[in-house]
Amino acid sequence: MTLWSGRFDTGPDPAAFEFGISFGFDRALFEDDVAGSLAWAEALGAAGVLSPEETRAIIEGLQAILDEGRRDPSCVSGPDEDIHSFVERKLVERIGDAGRRLHTGRSRNEQVSLDLRLYLRRRIPALQRDVAALVAACADQAERAGAALMPSYTHLRRAQPVLVAHYFLAHVAALRRDHGRLAAAADEADALTLGSGAIAGTSYPIDTALLARRLGFSRVVRNSMDASSDRDFVVSFLYAASVAMVHLSRLAEDLIIFTGEEHGFFELADASATGSSMMPQKKNPDPLELVRGKAGRAIGRLTGWLATMKGLPSGYNKDLQEDKEAVFDAEATLDASLRATQAVVSRLSLNAERTERAASGLLLATDVADYLVARGMPFRRAHEVVGALVRRLLAEGRDFSALTLEEWREASELFGDDVSQAATALASVQARRTPQSTNPQAVRVALEECRGWLAALEAGGGA
Ligand code: ARG
Question: Catalytic residue at 314?
Answer without folding.
Answer: no
